[in-house]
Amino acid sequence: MECEVLSLEQVCSFLKQRDNYTILTHSSPDGDTLGSGFAMQGVLEKLGKKARVICNDAIPQKFSYMIRKPVGEFDTQTLISVDVADLKLLGKNHVDFIGKIDLAIDHHGSNTMFAHRAYIEQDTSSCCEIIYKIAQCLNVELDCQIAAALYTGVATDTGCFKFSNTSDNTHLVAADLFKRGIDAAEINRVMFETKSRNMIQVEQIAYRSLEFSYDGRCAMVILPYELIKNCENSDLETVSNIARSIEGVLVGITLKEKEQNIIKISVRSHAPVDASAICGELGGGGHSRAAGCEFEGTISEAKQKILAVVKKYLEINNERTCTSKQA
Predict the structure, then answer these.
(1) Is 117 helix (H, G, I), strand (E, B) or coil?
(2) SS3 for 252?
(3) In the Cβ-directed half-sphere of 44, how many Cα atoms lie within 13 Å?
(4) Of 323 and 260, which is predicted with more confidence?
(5) Which of 82, 108, 103, 114 is nearest to 12 (CA)?
(6) Contact, 85 vs 285, CB < 8 A?
């Protein structure tokens, strides 16, 4: 299937022409995919359209403030995905959407162009920053709930404006969202300072499982299914950054056993190592500093496979550094 790449103006024209939208978010939902989805629903409703958001996984309670109930029943005419880089990320029933998604809005350079149309800004901090731009182009006045959803996505995907994907425009967008009456301090408290008991227990497991490789430049956390089977996806959110936060570590890896022989691999890196390139070799993708993929096999097999790829990229980085010093 050929995917047509749209301009911002073409996206807005498309949205005005269509109706009865179902907005798809990725599985293991985070602040950006949910913020993008519910903000887009609100924007479309302000245009007089009908819209709803669908996620294959349960939406964590902490995101409940952004949920919008659809206005009336309707049959889907237009399918949109937000913050989804690959069809597989929609979840177990992703095959039901093959060839059916009309428009993908995303900020991942690794997007597989699975939709009929796509609007992608890979240098933008978050999908929510893109939805903000679309709303501006459509001349839609943002209400407080839409603004709160957008702020959540921008804040969470930038690590509360700490990550390298934060730009001057990101701060300008956040500043405008402040003017819409959002309680940014409360959103930040819930997103960054509040942890469930399960999350604390998962972090304890993570610290006990830490393994180091390649002279301490790579650290790995391993979470077997039996130890995390009763945890919600939201309980596992903070784990992916643990390994990367250790001094001297360039690549942090987290292996989460979702079910028997299904391993979710999360990679976090520091410059100049490209996390997306690492995961790309295993069929995944993402951003240069945060990416992921899934592996079918045992934890031991996943560990060996990802470490071999990481070694390759650490060696490439080392060769470039040596060449630069010689020059």
Answers:
(1) strand
(2) strand
(3) 27
(4) 260
(5) 103
(6) yes
Residue type, 151: Y
pLDDT over threshold 60, residue 321: no
Q: The pTM is what?
A: 0.85
The DSSP output letter for 126 is -
Q: Kindly state the DSSP code that residue 147 receives in the 8-state scheme.
A: H
Q: Residue 298 is encoded by which pair of tokens?
A: 């045992």
Task: Enumerate the β-bridge partners of residue 51.
Answer: 21
- Asked whether the beta carbons of 176 and 53 are under 8 A apart, the reply is no
Secondary structure of 277-298 in the HEC alphabet? Answer: HHHHCCCCEECCCEEEEEEECC
Half-sphere exposure of 230 (CA within 13 A, CB side): 5
- How confident is residue 306, by pLDDT bands cut at 50, 70 and 90? very high
Amino acid at 93: N
The token duo for 55 is 């996620």
Task: Tell how far CA 70 is from the center of its chain.
Answer: 24
27 touches 91 (CB < 8 A): yes
Residues with Cβ within 8 Å of 14's Cβ and at least 6 positions away in sequence, in order, are: 6, 102, 103, 117
Q: Which residue has the tokens 């149309």?
A: 117
